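Input chain follows. Return structure tokens only.
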Amino acid sequence: MSIVVRNRGRIVAGILAVWLLLWLVLRGTHTLALGGAQLTTVHHWFNDLNDAIGAGRDSNPLFLYFFDYIRVGIDEFVVFVQSIIAQPSFDRPVPLIGWFGVVALVGFVSWAVANVRVALLATAGFFFLGLQGLWRESMDTLALTLAAVIISLLVGIPLGIWAGMSDRFNRLVTPVLDFMQIMPSFVYLAPLTLFFLIGPASATIATLIYAAPPVIRLTAHGIRSAPHDTVEASESLGSTRTQTLTKVLLPAAKRTIVLGVNQTIMAALAMVTIAALIDAPGLGKTVVKALQTLDVGTAFNAGLAIVVMAIVLDRVTTAAADRGRRNRPYRIVLWLAALPTAFAVWLSYTYVWAAEFDSSLDIGSRIAVWAGDATTWVQSNLAPVTNGVKDVFTLVLIDPLQSVLADSPWWLVAAAVVAISLVVGSVRAAIVSAVCLALIVLSGLWSDSMTTLASTIVATVFTMIIAVLAGVWMGRSRRADRVIRPVLDAGQTMPVFVYLVPFLALFAASRFTAIAAAVVYAVPVATKIIADGVRGVSGTTVEASVASGSSTWQTITKVQLPMSARAVALATNQGLIYVLCMVVVGGLVGAGALGYDVVAGFSQGQLYGKGLAAGIAIVLLGVMLDRLTQAAANRTHRGG
């Protein structure tokens, strides 16, 4: 196997060498570069399509009797949820349940589904949202998240049950879920606004599309993992299919389904913040406006609120998955606790002090000022260091790779990528790469796509360096795993916008800012995959290596990493997808390229077609990178 891998490595090195030689000769020709305001025929066609859909929206039966019903129905559901906890409603100047009632309800529900410790954390966390001066924005975010999660669960759990009980449907739905999960969250927005307009409906639909796959997958996995003997015993006793499902399969899959709910909630919260780009209300809108004006203080305060909400929601649902059966005294105490909770809700409905958070308690403005002052101090006093790091990475790594990709003839890049896909992946991966690259050429955004690809590759390389080092350490040391894994778990709960704020403070708006944020965003998932792969290597094999006189370095490089090569390949796959998502979002902080094209498409009507084409190009890059790395992982697993 090692000989085959070395041979493939030599072939790839040869392809890269030929590419570089031709680049030196042909540099700057056939690059398909496009100016910021320039539009291609495809972009004009998308603009015309948008205008035609807008002109016929009030007369087209497809909109009158299908899309508009969906949009209005979801809008009304979101408004209903907002009217309960977030927005003035029912001829009242305040929501039905004010801050005091929401905090009490959050504490009670957390206690009921988790435990007292989590309930205290949730209560303190939501109270802190009010102290930040962001209560209404936080409740708007929570309302949109809840609306999307409710719809996702109503759709996702039945589909998961169906996939768990039907092999045929599972085979059918798996590639669809794969595709939904490899698409960066950014790209759901533009096509949805085409049919559902800009607003809460499009934001909610984008959120539920992005958030539904985890609960479908984990529900199906939980049902398929139910003890086979128990299922057979139930059927032998004459249970119907429905009885087996409700009495055996669902109880056995309960913990896995709750974990799926957790993942769906976290995905929904992440997407709701990004959906601020299409006018979704809440904390995301505050962060987006602050990032666009480079107001780090305001962005930090709103980002901190998102982090607090993410931590609370994650801890509540995670604890709910691990909760055991309640004894009778505990249930009695819980029911008694419902009385003061109901009283708190009544107070928040009746009295202004319990409905609107006291603005005199606001510490958010001070947090924003402190963060702004800290940013100013860092940029004034550490500028030689931060600018030096940024300039070195930009000049040594980012600019050269971007030049090779963006300044090479498009056909040379395509030929090299297809050849590499064939060597490290498979014929199918090469075909997918060829099709995706051809469609990127047709999108008119080849140069921007190559710029985005360059940033993605640089960020992925650093992600994998960190992930391999940390993953091997965790895989070899239980103590390191116990210390590092909770940090990685916490990192995975944070929505993408949150990562941009500290790097914007350190490095200002630049491509490097987006790349650094992308590395931090992608490291947790890649590290955990590698750590699990290294730990999965047989202990007997490791002991044999040590007994034969191998050093620690030799054991790692000759035994553990080669035997966990599939895990490393899968970590690379996931790292690439996470990096691509963040690099694109980095268009808000100076990364430019496709991310900027998408944002510009939302804000400038004449660039809508270009923004939509950029979203398609992002999808094509994601599909190409995903298929290539998955094919490489499968080839590694087969030893071919």
